[in-house]
Amino acid sequence: MQIPTVRFPRDTSAFTRTLRQRVDSYFKENNLSRTGDWRMYLKTSVMLALYFVPWALFTFGVTGTGVWFWVAELVMGLGLAGIGLNVMHDANHGAFSKSKMVNDLLGRTLDLVGGNAALWRIQHNVLHHTFTNIDGLDEDIDTPGLLRFTPQRPLKPWHRFQHIYAWFFYAIMSLFWITAKDWIAISRYEKKGLIERSGTTKGKLITYLVITKSLHFFYMFALPLIFSDLVWWQVLVGWGVMHAVAGLALASIFQLAHVMEHHTFPQAVKGEVMEADPMAHQLQTTANFGTRSRLLTWLSGGLNHQIEHHLFPNICHVHHRKLAPIVEKTAREFGLPYNSQTTFWTALRVHTRMLRTLGQTA
Fold it and tell me: Which of 51, 43, 46, 33 is nearest to 94 (CA)?
């Protein structure tokens, strides 16, 4: 099974040309690199510390088995989300540094925390960024039957409650990812020919996954049991708490960017050309939120500026805030949507309302 032939019009529209020229001019006039700078290295140090310092404190018995152990797990969950949003994301897009070696190294921080960078790049860079909100191709909305993120999916009786129970599945998102999702993805991507296209083989990926995931579970479970007074159920439940924090944080960024009332969910027909060109398609399926909050922008790795990220995924997130006025002005000039008005809390309410609508309307 190969990816269906989905064709977009040539990416040479007047909007695309104008926007690219203006963005190029911004970097040239300000003598800036499109990749990251010292701010990315500082943030990377902070996010890695948020994850590994709490781990070290409870692993080697500093926190004890009481309340500070649970506080450490909560902080570690924020660190896990922070690594995903701020470090590995830019690195795996090639936007962290001009150095391919640095990008590859920091992209593999995902492997360090239990995921897999190679599989993530297929799922995110190839499928999600190319086929945003297209049912059957964008895996961010291609969920099992328990959730309905697109009008193209069959409506089931239990979907009327999904705006309530979806948050449970968001909470176990990263836990499912590192325990099962990567293994399931290998077979699926092999059938679609995506593993070979990524420059590796199924055998190499499986071997790498066995090694990295074994090391991850060793330092997460075995070392705390060896060096602290924690018992097995505390380590296990603490691990679950950490992933619940991370999963909710990650879902609260990514889901608000694409599953909203003002988004389109285009259908792709094999052999036919999509109506919108690639950049217009991104504007129709993507939204910003909470962009006035510098704290949210910093914590989310600039992914509350999701429009800028989807239009220019190879540009580091430290530049998104300055690019936003350029993108908005150009979109308005060409009569294209630029959805960037909602605060974070309003976006959460709108997303919840969208889940309820999708759960009740065929």
Answer: 33
- Where are the domains positioned within the chain? 14-360
Beta bridge partners of 202: none
Whether residue 103 contacts residue 94, with contact meaning beta carbons closer than 8 Å, is answered with yes
CA distance 168 to 49: 27
How many angstroms separate the CA atoms of 133 and 150, rounded? 8
**Which pair of tokens denotes residue 113?**
């925390």
Please state, in angstroms and as integers, the Cα–Cα distance from residue 33 to each residue in 37, 40, 92, 330, 360, following that order.
Answer: 8, 13, 17, 22, 47
Q: What does the pLDDT read at residue 1?
A: 39
Q: Are 340 and 289 a contacting pair, CB within 8 Å?
A: yes
DSSP annotation of 160 = G
Token code pair at residue 173: 């998102």
Write down the residue that tokens 């889901």 correspond to: 255
The segments of the chain whose pLDDT lies below 50 read 1-2
Work out the angle at residue 99's Cα, subtended by the Cα atoms of residues 307 and 32, and round it to the nearest 5 degrees: 55
Instruction: Please give the pLDDT value at position 5.
Output: 62
Using the CB atoms, write b or e for 287-300: b if 16+ within 10 Å: bbbbbeeeebbbbb
* DSSP letters spanning 271-331: TSBPSS-HHHHHHHH-----TT-HHHHHHTTTTTSHHHHHH-TTS-GGGHHHHHHHHHHHH
Provide the H-helix boundaries in 30-107.
Answer: 38-59, 67-82, 89-92, 100-107
SS3 2: coil
